[in-house]
Amino acid sequence: MTGIQATSSAMHDLVGAGSEVKRLATGFIFTEGPIWHPTEQILYFSDMPGDVRRCVTLDGTVREVLRPARKCNGMTLDANLDLLVCEHVSSSLVRERADGVHETLAYHWQGTYLNSPNDVCVRSDGTIYFTDPWYGRTAAFGCERSRDLGWQGVFRIPPGGGQAELDLVVAEDEFDMPNGLCFSPDEALLYVNDTARALIKVFDVLPDGRLENVRLFYEGIVSETEGGVPDGMKCDERGNVWVTAPGGVWVISPAAELLGKVGVPEVVGNLAWGGPDWRTLFLMGSTSIYTLRTSVGPRREPYMR
Alpha-carbon dihedral of residues 203, 196, 5, 2, nearest 10 degrees? Predict the structure, then answer.
């Protein structure tokens, strides 16, 4: 199924009538890590198996940015428009500053190398959160090697901090493979999905950035007939969660009601809003990038302001 499948009338308020999934660019191996740059007006993205970072404009023009790219995965921008990058090959979270300085923010936990930072988001005060499954220790999506840590966590770096201030914010056994993560619009909640368990959990975010009161938000993100898993995830400005899933992307309300699905011709690994009005949703199909015009925009992140 390609296009919009509404299971609630609320879905029609998010994607207007006649809006279609359109292919913007193709010819890649596995696209990931989309992030729209608000001043450059381009979408940066990674092609992990190809070990290259590229960018694409709204007219479909593709340009190579970095090769090799350490098989980078999730990317975002901070309030200074510096790029935060999850590197699979180096098992690191790094900051690439606009002045060309490359900073390693995190690469180990208590003396043991991280698995492979996967996705990253930033709170308004500058606190950084990232997930650390071990997908980057496989041959296709990283560098094949044994695991050192033995479990898969979610970490936090306080504003202005780095490796010395790295903090584990969930129990070691909370997730099997934590992957996508995103804040609610008011940043009172942090959603984290678990690819292996096909579910999403939600935490209350305390003023100091710690997480508490974990509970199940949504489960059963599976299908016997369609490919796709919980991977990339974003929250819109109304608090709905958009998560990659079988068939494309599923849209779930703050009350955990499935509002509808966005069908995409290929397995979708991640998504991000962009464009001059923040109403173009970029869908990272395996070999292609697709777009969908929406009536709703993203949760306003620091770099969008």
Answer: 140
Whole-angstrom Cα distance, residue 62 to residue 91?
Answer: 27
Cα separation values, 4 from 97, 219, 260, Å? 38, 21, 7
Predicted confidence at residue 18, as pLDDT, reads 87
* pLDDT value at 1 more than 80: no
Closest to 178 (Cα-Cα) out of 118, 125, 260: 118
Q: Where are the domains of the chain?
A: 3-304
Identity of residue 51: D
Rounded CA gap, 258 and 241, in Å? 10
CATH topology of domain 3-304: Neuraminidase (2.120.10)
Mean pLDDT taken over the chain = 97
SS (H, E, C) 90-122: CCEEEEECCCCCEEEEECEECCEECCCCCCEEE
| DSSP summary character for residue 224 | S
Residue 274's identity, in one-letter code, is G
Residue 189 half-sphere exposure toward CB, CA atoms < 13 A: 19
Sequential DSSP letters for 170-219: S-TTS-SSEEEEEE-TTSSEEEEEETTTTEEEEEEEPTTS-EEEEEEEEE
Q: Measured in Å, how far apart are the chain's first and last C-alpha atoms?
A: 36
pLDDT digits 0-9 by tens, 52-108: 999 999 999 999 999 999 999 999 999 999 999 999 999 999 999 989 899 999 999
Is residue 49 reached through a cis peptide bond, with omega within 30 degrees of 0 on the bond before it? no
The string of pLDDT tens digits covering residues 103-149 is 999 999 999 999 999 999 999 999 999 999 999 999 989 999 999 99
Tell me if 197 sits within 8 A of 176, measured CB to CB: yes
- Is the separation of the CB atoms in 106 and 93 below 8 Å? yes
**What does the alpha-carbon distance between residue 68 and residue 54 come to, in Å, rounded to a whole number?**
11
